[in-house]
Design a protein that fits this description.
heterodimer, A: 478 residues, alpha/beta, 22% helix, B: 250 residues, 36% helix, globular, binds adenosine-5'-diphosphate, binds magnesium ion
Chain lengths: 478, 250
């Protein structure tokens, strides 16, 4: 590829600003006392503290996983803080009480929390460092019996639901980062959709890391009761900082009989600078359980940010005739590394899974798809289709595919297709010859490549995702 | 409108254009002919600004401006259109979306408002008729799975929509049957204006029965070895190229 590729100037990360706000931050370090302190600050019941402590003790016996195809400086778990909250937030009765500085932050991020101004048809829970600063549209949702609030609030208001489902899909012992999260998780969103209710609007959580030297450990729990439907979207940004920050979240989804959960992520954490300095380490455990028959869980992710991404949104297909889907676009540029994919565990009869992964690598980025399809002996007539496409922009980047297929029932059908292509100078030239700029050309080619995934996103966000992709890749092609 | 003077160009370290001089006036049709490998596509690509080709000597001015200093998209915005010999496939991008983006980009460059999707659809209806193309071509990805003839027709559709001032057709006729050839020629002829010009690169004189050139140039070994009127094309048809090549290839 000629030298004209790699010649555009990088556009700066737009969300890299810092909000100057007084914060209540626990000093760095992690001990049993810190776990107790977090729990106390949140006024939690004993059962939850006990759960955290069990997780903490388990974590102490575990080792950070090094099987992903990423490399980074060792993380010093004692040098960061595990809790930071803007002082002005607690206690909060309504959005009118939110600190104006925080409201301005969200306005700047394009997420106005002011209800009147907000996009109709979307309810938002905004999480700033370790706490939720406000949830919109609560009243409208409440009338349908839908619970959409911070996890902390859910622990207080709906303890029986939280206690029943927390850790039921991702147990605290699941993996190193899940154990860490279970010990110190500070905030996250909780959703409960009652039987037979179709949630009339998109539910959305917006995560913002602000404080320096703190990790973010949110935890999201979504329960869709029988015959219900919900579409949920999470977005994420963080300031530009020269030191890396750890983000170890857990998301658990439970779909009961005939329920559908659609979970979409547009991840745009700060990715570090051109030389790989700073950026978020995104080590996330996301898993859904199709617990009932005919249930469906669909993950759609657009991953453009983070210095390192380690993330495998998975579905346990327990109910008969249940369906799991995974649609993913992962983009790496500069020194970004992503090891992402999915796991589909077929347990029930006639279970179906569909995987579409689009990896784009530019600059010195390294992109790995890691996908597991496991068909257990009882999963009669299980079907999986996996399509895994990689696109390379330039010569210094890499794309890797690691499929793991285990079939324990001979009535199963498992198909895997993979391709690797290069964005061609000829394609870019063709579009430029028709009047488009290099940026537009790349963005068009890449959007075309990602089309099957974008069409799974809610309308408003498909456009945003497309733009993000363009911005992330700017500077990689000329 | 286009003045090419002593143009030299290389690809890698191979010199392909070795001193081309050509003047194109508004309202005129020029045919560039010549054997395979003589540099016809190279000339077309250099005029459009393909980065794989380095201009090593000479000048090209377009409406008095230095064409070679312009980015390819600027050339396009100023009305230069190249119908590619090998049109490129863009998976996942619909033909209609691509065309509207291009059309609006060119409008914006002229300080005009973008055209809304409804009006654009009307415009497309009209242009599709001109090239006798089926609506389904609009929803398909750009050139993906198009037959050779469909690709060429798609180039002409783009030309019809973008209405360039200077269109360069690089072997748009090769691989076309008579019907397709007539459609392509019809598309070109409909666009003829006193202010526009066309350079038709072709191997065969066949197309020139439909698009009648004012000038015919023969390219060989990276140089124009003969120029004449439309009768030169007929002579080439009858005698081949060999009689012109002696001494042309250094
Ligand atoms: N991108 C390229 N890389 C290497 N050689 C090229 C390239 N483009 C053209 N050439 C060479 O330049 C010469 C002229 O090619 P071209 O301009 O395509 O001729 P024509 O269109 O007249 O058939 C040929 O020898 C061809 O192999
Ligand atoms: Mg040619």
């Amino acid at each position: 590829m000629s030298s004209s590729i790699e010649s555009l100037v990088n556009r700066e990360y737009q969300y890299g600003f810092v909000t100057d706000i007084e914060a209540d931050t626990i000093p760095p370090g992690l001990t049993e006392d810190v776990v107790r302190l977090i729990s106390a600050k949140k006024g939690e019941p004993v059962w939850l503290l006990d759960w955290r402590l069990k997780a903490y003790r388990r974590w102490l016996t575990m080792k950070e996983p090094h099987w992903p195809n990423v490399s980074y400086q060792p993380i010093d778990y004692q040098s960061q803080s595990y809790y930071s909250a803007p002082k002005s937030v607690t206690p909060l009765q309504s959005l009118d009480e939110v600190d104006p500085e925080l409201l301005r932050t969200y306005e700047k991020l394009g997420i106005p929390l002011n209800e009147q101004k907000f996009l109709s048809g979307v309810a938002v829970d905004a999480i700033f460092d370790s706490v939720s600063v406000g949830t919109t549209m609560k009243k409208e949702l409440g009338e349908l019996g839908i619970v959409f609030c911070s996890l902390g609030e859910a622990v207080r208001e709906h303890p029986e639901l939280v206690r029943k489902y927390l850790g039921s899909v991702v147990p605290y012992s699941d993996n190193f980062f899940a154990a860490l999260n279970s010990a110190v998780f500070s905030e996250g969103s909780f959703v409960y959709i009652p039987k037979g209710v179709r949630c009339p609007m998109e539910l959305s959580t917006y995560f913002r890391i602000n404080a320096e030297g703190t990790g973010q450990f949110e935890r999201t729990l979504i329960v869709a009761d029988e015959g219900s439907y919900v579409s949920y979207l999470e977005g994420c940004t963080a300031p530009k900082r020269s030191t890396s920050q750890l983000h170890a979240a857990v998301v658990e989804l439970i779909a009961l009989k005939d329920a559908t959960i659609k979970y979409s992520t547009v991840q745009n954490w700060y990715a570090g600078d051109k030389d790989g300095k700073g950026g978020i380490y995104n080590f996330v455990t996301k898993r859904g359980k199709c617990a009932g028959a005919n249930s469906k869980i669909s993950w759609t992710q657009v991953e453009t940010g983070s210095a390192i991404t380690w993330k495998y949104p998975s579905v346990i297909l327990q109910g008969d005739n249940s369906t799991g889907e995974f649609y993913s676009v992962a983009v790496v540029n500069n020194r970004q590394q992503a090891d992402t994919g999915t796991k589909m565990i077929h347990i029930g009869r006639n279970t179906k899974s569909n995987i579409v992964s689009k990896g784009i690598s530019a600059g010195h980025g390294q992109n790995s798809y890691r996908g597991q399809v496991k068909v257990l002996p009882k999963a009669v007539n299980a079907r999986n289709y996996t399509q895994c496409d990689s696109m390379l922009v330039g010569n210094a980047c890499g794309a890797h595919t690691f499929p793991y297929i285990e079939v324990g029932n001979n009535t199963a059908t498992v198909e895997h297709e993979a391709s690797t292509s290069k964005i061609g100078e000829d394609q870019i030239f063709y579009l430029k010859q028709r009047g488009l700029s290099a940026e537009q050309a790349v963005s068009m080619i890449v959007s075309g490549f990602c089309k099957e995934v974008f069409k799974e996103l809610p309308m408003e966000f498909a456009l945003e995702a497309q733009q993000l992709l363009g911005i992330t890749l700017e500077g990689s092609v000329g | 409108m286009l003045e090419i003077k002593d143009l030299h160009a290389t690809v890698g370290d191979k010199e392909i254009l070795r001193g081309i001089t050509l003047s194109v006036e508004p309202g005129s049709v020029h045919a560039v002919m010549g054997p395979n490998g003589s540099g016809k596509s190279t000339l077309a690509q250099v005029l459009a600004g393909h980065p794989a080709y380095q201009v090593t000597g000479g000048t090209v001015t377009y409406d008095g401006e230095d064409l070679l200093a312009m980015d390819p998209e600027v050339r396009a915005q100023k009305g230069i259109f190249l119908a590619f010999q090998y049109p490129v496939e863009i998976p996942g991008v619909s033909n209609a979306y691509f065309l509207r983006a291009a059309y609006n980009e060119i409008r914006k460059a002229h300080g005009d408002e973008e055209m809304d999707p409804m009006s654009f659809a009307d415009l497309m209806d009209e242009k599709m008729k001109l090239v006798e193309m089926d609506d389904s071509m609009l929803t398909r990805s750009v050139n993906m799975g198009f037959s050779g003839g469909e690709k060429k027709r798609n180039e002409i559709l783009q030309m019809a929509v973008l209405e360039p001032r200077l269109a360069i057709l690089d072997e748009t006729d090769s691989g076309l049957d008579i019907d397709a050839l007539r459609i392509v020629a019809n598309g070109v002829n409909t666009l003829k204006r006193p202010t526009n010009a066309v350079i038709v690169v072709t191997h065969y004189q066949r197309l020139l029965n439909y698009i009648v050139p004012d000038f015919v140039h023969v390219l060989a070994g990276g140089r124009i070895v003969r120029s004449g009127g439309k009768e030169l094309a007929l002579e080439l048809e009858a005698r081949g190229y060999d009689w012109l090549l002696e001494g042309a290839v250094a």
